[in-house]
C-alpha cells in the first residue's frame, strides 16, 4: 500500500515538473513581455529637441555662395594681352637698325673673297685624276665593224619559219677565239637564253654560236651580251630589233677582242 502511494506522488511530481518545463519553454519562445514605462524617465529623453540647434548653422551656408562671384575677377587677366602687342612693335625698330651696319661691313669684306679664286686653280690639278677611269671602261671585246648584219636564214633548213641570232668571236690576231671560256647571253622580257662560244659550227668552225628565237618572223627586241661562263660581261650590251621579214630573219653578231 505504501508503495502505491509513493508511486502516485512520484507521478504527480513528474507531471508538475513536465508542466513547469513546458511553461518555461513557451515563455522563452514567446514574445518578450513589455515592461511598464516609468513616467519619471520620459522628460529627460524628450529633451532630445536639442538637435534643432544645428538648424541655425545651415543659415550660414548662403554665405559661401557669395564668395564665388567675388572670384569673377578672373577676366582681369584679359587685360594682360593688351600690353603684349605694345611690346612687339618695340622689337621691329631694332630690326631696322641691324641692316644698316651690315652694308658697311660688306665693302671691307669684299676684298677678302678675291683670295678664294687663287685657291681654285690649286684644286683643278687634282681633277684630272678621275680621267684615268675611262681607260678601264672599255671591255676587252667589241662589236666587229660596229654593226649587226641582218641576213636571210641560210644556216639551217627552216628557211622563213625561223628567227634567231648567231655569230662568231675573234681574238686579238683576228682569228676565231678558241679559248672556250665565253658565252653569249640573249634576253628580253620573255626570253633568257645562253649559247657557248664554239657551240655551232654553221656560224664559225671554232667560235660559232646560235640562239633560236622562234619559228616565225616578228619585230621583237632582244639584247645580246658577250660574257664569261660565270656571267661577267666582257663586251657592251647590244640592242637588236628584227624587221619582221623573211629576208632578214637572222641577226649576225660578231665580236672581236681589242685588249
What attributes characterize this protein structure?
single chain; 259 residues; alpha+beta; Immunoglobulin-like; five-stranded mixed β-sheet; four-stranded antiparallel β-sheet; 28% helix; 20% strand
Task: Give a short summary of the structure.
The chain has a domain at 141-257: Immunoglobulin-like, CATH 2.60.40.1120.
Ordered list of secondary-structure elements with their pairings:
Blueprint: H1 2-29, H2 42-46, H3 67-70, H4 80-97, H5 101-109, H6 116-123, E1 141-143, E2 149-151, E3 163-170, E4 182-187, E5 192-196, E6 209-214, E7 221-228, E8 238-241, E9 250-257
Would you mind describing this structure in some detail?
The chain is an alpha+beta fold. It has 6 helices and 9 strands; from the N terminus they run H-H-H-H-H-H-E-E-E-E-E-E-E-E-E. The protein has helices at 2-29, 42-46, 67-70, 80-97, 101-109, 116-123, and strands spanning 141-143, 149-151, 163-170, 182-187, 192-196, 209-214, 221-228, 238-241, 250-257. It is rod-shaped and about 170 Å long. The protein starts with a helix and ends with a strand. Mean pLDDT is 76; it is low at 76-82, 91-98, 103-110, 120-125 and 129-134.
CATH class category name of the domain at 141-257: Mainly Beta
Sheet with most strands:
5 strands, mixed
Dominant shape: rod-shaped
User: What assembly state would you assign to the polypeptide chains in this entry?
Assistant: single chain
Total helical segments? 6
Got a strand count? 9
- Radius of gyration, Cα only, in angstroms? 61 Å
**Binned strand content:** 15-25%
Helix content: 25-40%
Structural class: alpha+beta
CATH superfamily of the domain at 141-257: Carboxypeptidase-like, regulatory domain
Question: Would you identify the CATH architecture of the domain at 141-257?
Answer: Sandwich
Mean pLDDT figure: 76
CATH topology-level fold name of the domain at 141-257: Immunoglobulin-like
Order of H and E elements: HHHHHHEEEEEEEEE
Low-confidence stretches: 76-82, 91-98, 103-110, 120-125, 129-134
Distance between the termini: 162 Å
Amino acid at each position: 500500500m505504501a508503495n502505491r502511494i509513493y508511486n502516485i506522488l512520484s507521478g504527480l511530481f513528474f507531471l508538475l515538473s513536465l508542466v513547469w518545463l513546458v511553461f518555461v519553454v513557451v515563455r522563452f519562445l514567446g514574445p518578450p513581455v513589455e515592461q511598464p514605462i516609468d513616467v519619471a524617465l520620459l522628460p529627460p529623453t524628450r529633451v532630445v529637441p536639442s538637435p534643432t540647434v544645428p538648424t541655425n548653422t545651415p543659415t550660414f551656408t548662403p554665405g559661401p555662395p557669395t564668395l564665388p562671384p567675388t572670384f569673377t575677377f578672373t577676366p582681369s587677366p584679359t587685360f594682360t594681352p593688351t600690353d603684349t602687342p605694345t611690346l612687339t612693335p618695340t622689337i621691329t625698330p631694332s630690326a631696322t637698325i641691324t641692316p644698316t651696319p651690315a652694308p658697311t661691313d660688306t665693302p671691307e669684306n669684299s676684298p677678302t673673297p678675291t683670295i678664294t679664286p687663287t685657291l681654285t686653280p690649286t684644286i683643278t690639278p687634282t681633277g684630272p685624276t678621275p680621267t684615268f677611269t675611262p681607260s678601264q671602261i672599255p671591255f676587252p671585246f667589241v662589236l666587229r665593224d660596229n654593226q649587226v648584219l641582218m641576213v636571210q636564214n641560210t644556216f639551217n633548213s627552216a628557211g622563213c619559219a625561223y628567227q634567231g641570232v648567231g655569230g662568231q668571236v675573234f681574238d686579238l690576231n683576228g682569228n676565231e677565239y678558241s679559248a672556250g671560256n665565253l658565252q653569249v647571253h640573249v634576253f628580253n622580257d620573255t626570253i633568257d637564253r645562253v649559247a657557248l662560244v664554239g657551240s655551232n659550227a654553221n656560224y664559225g668552225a671554232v667560235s660559232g654560236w646560235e640562239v633560236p628565237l622562234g619559228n616565225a618572223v616578228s619585230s621583237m627586241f632582244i639584247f645580246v651580251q658577250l660574257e664569261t661562263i660565270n656571267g661577267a660581261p666582257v663586251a657592251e650590251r647590244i640592242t637588236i630589233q628584227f624587221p619582221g621579214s623573211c629576208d632578214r630573219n637572222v641577226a649576225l653578231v660578231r665580236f672581236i677582242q681589242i685588249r
